[in-house]
Specification:
single chain, alpha+beta, Glutaredoxin, 3 helices, 6 strands, globular
Length: 109
């Protein structure tokens, strides 16, 4: 499983999201190396298809894809399971994406 954590220094949410990601991986007993990628410019944002900080990709897939993302240096908005906005992905969102990736790996075996 390939996990990438994309972040922008101007966003105060990325440290908590980084910890949340690691907590979920540990809770699922998943030992994956997480590549930390700092997005520094709007060109980086376009190249990485970065809709805001923090963004988590698992096997190249955004854990919370957006219908029409705009790629730029900004903080990202997520939505909790109850519909309320949040600057962080919920643990449930991260867990669901990891479990889906694990299931895809099992299907390929």
């Amino acid at each position: 499983m390939r996990v990438q954590f994309l972040w922008w220094e101007g966003c105060p949410s990325h440290p908590e999201a980084w910890q949340r990601l690691h907590d979920v991986l540990a809770g699922l007993d998943v030992h994956a190396e997480v590549e930390r990628i700092e997005i520094k410019t709007d060109d980086d944002a376009e190249r990485w298809r970065f809709p805001g900080s923090p963004t988590i990709l698992i096997d190249g897939q955004d854990i919370a894809p957006q219908a029409e993302p705009v790629y730029r240096l900004t903080c990202r908005l997520y939505f909790r399971e109850d519909g309320r906005p949040s600057p962080l992905p919920s643990e449930a969102t991260i867990r669901r994406a990891v479990q889906q990736a694990l299931a895809r790996c099992q299907d390929q075996v």
